[in-house]
Amino acid sequence: MEEEKIRRIAELREKLEERARKLEAELEEMKILLDVINDLLLEKSFKKAEEIAKPVALKPPEEQPQPVPTERRVKTFPLKAATGELLADLYVEDGTIRVVPAADKKFNVNTPPFTAFLIERILAKMQQRDQELLAQGKMNLSEVFSFGVKKDGDILQEITIRNYAPQRERELKSATRWTLEKMYEKMKSSP
After folding, report:
1. Could you read off the pLDDT of 59-77 as tens digits, one per residue?
2. For the chain, where are the E strands, in sequence order?
3. Angstrom distance (rounded) from CA 80 to CA 118
4. What backbone torsions phi and psi does residue 66 show, to the nearest 5 degrees?
5. 9 belongs to a structural domain
6. Range of the domain at 175
7. Residue 168 forms part of a structural domain
8. Residue 92 lies in a domain
9. Per the structure, how many domains does the chain have?
10. Under a CB-based contact definition with an 8 Å cutoff, are residues 114 and 186 in contact?
11. CA proximity to 93, closest of 144, 164, 179, 145
12. 143-181 pLDDT, tens per residue?
């Protein structure tokens, strides 16, 4: 009788621990989503001074200069830890995001939360949503979200993300930065 009671208590403890892990992961996701929403609200709520002060020039259509072909534009965003430490550089170019870890950082792809959070919960879910839209005929194959992880052994070399919707860019930046920061914290604390 006593053994049965102890076994049931141990099972209950396991269930509670699993539920706590799930809730912690869900809380982190919600924090990321709140960051994304706050950024979007700031971006959409305020007009930049240049937009307000820009005079409107009206020229007849025949006087409009032809657009000059522009060079490929690459936007670079440093992904930093809360301490200011550079974790990686994120490059955005022609619908592709490349995440390249800082030269002094050796991120092991087996370090949580890389696979469980960034790969499975963020990137794979986005890819799955687009695959469903493709199956429903609402998206072309050339538009489907895709990603790749380049590594040397278990060390992350680069993450490449293609065909992401522009509204996903902030979420991708935020989730990647958060993941790398958590991995870096674990790297620092391990011997």
Report:
1. 444 544 554 445 557 788 8
2. 75-80, 86-93, 96-101, 146-152, 155-162
3. 17
4. -70, 140
5. no
6. 61-189
7. yes
8. yes
9. 1
10. no
11. 164
12. 888 889 999 999 999 999 988 877 888 888 888 999 999
Which one-letter amino acid corresponds to residue 108?
N
Query: Is residue 25 helix, strand or coil?
Result: helix
Quote the pTM value.
0.59
Cα 149 to Cα 100: distance, rounded to the nearest angstrom: 10
Residues in the chain: 191
Left, alpha or beta for 103 (phi > 0: left; psi -120 to 50: alpha)?
alpha
User: Is 44 part of a structural domain of the chain?
Assistant: no
Residue 41 tokens, joined: 């609200």
Q: Which residue is associated with the tokens 């809730």?
A: 23
CA atoms within 13 A on the CB side of 89: 9
d(CA 123, CA 121): 6
Distance separating alpha carbons of residues 87 and 102, to the nearest angstrom: 5
- Name the DSSP class of 67: P
Q: State which amino acid sits at residue 161.
A: I
